[in-house]
Structures are given as structure tokens and as C-alpha cells.
Amino acid sequence: MIKIAFFAVLAVVLLSGVLFSPAHPGLAIHPMDQFEIKPLFGDGHGGLGLFTVTNQTLWMVLAIIGVVLMLVVGSRGRAIVPTRSQSVAEMAYGFVYKMVEDVAGKDAVKYFPGIMTLFMFILFANFLGLIPTSFTATSHIAVTAVLAMIVFVFVTVLGFVKNGAGFLGLFWVSSAPLALRPILAVIELISYFVRPVSHSIRLAGNVMAGHAVIKVFAGFAAALGMFSFLPILAISAVYALEVLVAFIQAYVFTILTCVYLKDALHPSH
What we know:
Blueprint (H helix, E strand, L loop, with lengths): L1 H19 L34 H19 L10 H21 L7 H17 L12 H23 L17 H43 L5 H37 L4
Helix pairs in contact: 2-4, 3-4, 3-7, 4-7, 5-6, 5-7, 6-7
């Protein structure tokens, strides 16, 4: 039965490739077109003054709505026996809470609401971007850079507020030989200011790369005719990987935020 089912599916795939193959197959792959920001109304130069509603604006708003629906509406009942939506909300809450407590310490728990908001926004933006014909807001460095700069400015200001000049101890490696400490201090200072760059590029680059690969395979599927099932199988595999990447990148961005928060609260090496 398994062999019969396999050959039946293969026959359907080959037949569909023959019936629906393009009349003039050819490669026309433009993987970066999906990241183009377009105004939703008009040409983007009028109507709303300085603010233009774009596809990026729309999908960021949808991500925010998704977070509100999940964390506020989904858990509003606060039932002893939770519903599915409340269970998911509680799992997300517990997951991020434990991350903050384990990485940054108990004294960082007071900043949990901001970190939870950051994690959920990135997570929803990543997952919404996996919907066909949607737009992935986190694929643009303009979005991820703003998020990274918010984290960078916050932890820097918090470090000086909490520790005063003692925050500079983050750059002074007291365990190293005295002659090397000034050199290491310069290296530490440079690496500190590079944080928002790596923080933002890591998220945007990984999200953009996965979507571009899927678009490339989709272009091959349109050009190969009856053999289009081969890139379609590749698309399925990459898409499954992208689902995992969508979560991992939100997790990595958040856990790095917790690490930076720990440095701000406890700057000494």
C-alpha cells in the first residue's frame, strides 16, 4: 500500500507538471523583490503628510495585534483550567520569565515586561512573514536596528544609573596582566559599540536569507516544468527550517538582550 501511494503521488506530481508547465520555461528569479517597501495608498507622497502607510507598517501593526490577542484577549479569563490560548500565553510568559531570571539574575525581573514585549513582537513578525504573499518586517535592517538601538541605549543608561562610574569596569579586565589591560579596554570598548550592529544584522540577515532562498527555489519550480516537484520538495524543507529559524532568531535576540542587561546590572569582570 505504501508503494502504491508513493507512485500515485509521484504520478500526480508529474502529470501536474506536464499540464501546468509554462509555455516558455525560463529563469526569472528576483528574490529581493519581496522585501520592497510599497505604499498601500497612492504613490506615497500625499494624503497623510509625513507618514505613509506601507506594507511594512501594515504587517508590524498585525504583529502587535497578534501579541495583544494572544497575551491579553487569549488569557483574559484566567481560568484555573486554562483554555488553549491561555495555555500558550502562559507558556510564553514562563519561558521568557525564566530566561530573564536565569541569564540576567533575579534583580533583572523588574525589566521583564519590556523583554517579553520585545520577544513576542519579533516572534509574531517572523511568523507572520512566513504566510505566502505577506511581508516580513524583521527582514529590514531599519526595523531591527531600531530595536537593537533601544536595547543598547537602555542598558547603557541603566548601567550608569545603577553603577555610576563603576559601569566602566565592564571595559577594564582586572584579571588580565596590567600591561594588557589598556589594550583589552580598547577592544572591549569597540566590541561594546558594535553590539547594536551585530544585534540587528543577525536578525535581519537570517530572516532575509531564508526568504530569499525560498524565492529562488520557487523560480526554479516555475522554470522546470514537469520536474518542478524537485524544487518544490526543496521549498518544503527550507520552509520547515524557516519555521524553526523564526523562533530561534527571536530567542537569540532576546537572550542577547538579557546578557546585555546583566552586564549593565553587574558590570565587573
